[in-house]
Write a structure and sequence with these properties.
Elements (H helix, E strand, L loop, with lengths): L26 H6 L8 E6 L3 E6 L3 H22 L1
């Protein structure tokens, strides 16, 4: 069955941090996002309790996405006050 949710918006499961601080990205996520051995990833801390990974070559797309979302987030925060 095909997934209707785009890969960038899907939940792929959970992982565990190993003894050396390594994290295994679930196989389904690696396949859907075309991650290969040696892929360079950026790691962002989000709000002190969240981590986001992004493919280095996708930084420009990620930056545009976050800028677009920022307006929505700001509106939600203002309306929640």
């Amino acid at each position: 069955m095909a997934h209707l949710t785009p890969p960038e918006q899907r939940f792929y499961g959970s992982t565990t941090i190993g003894e050396k601080g390594q994290v295994v990205i679930p196989a389904e996520a690696r396949k859907a996002l075309k991650l290969k051995t040696g892929s360079k990833m950026l790691v962002f801390g989000m709000g002190g309790n969240m981590i986001t990974f992004a493919k280095l070559e996708e930084l420009a797309k990620f930056e545009r996405h976050m800028a677009e979302r920022l307006q929505s987030i700001r509106k939600a925060v203002r309306s929640a006050k």
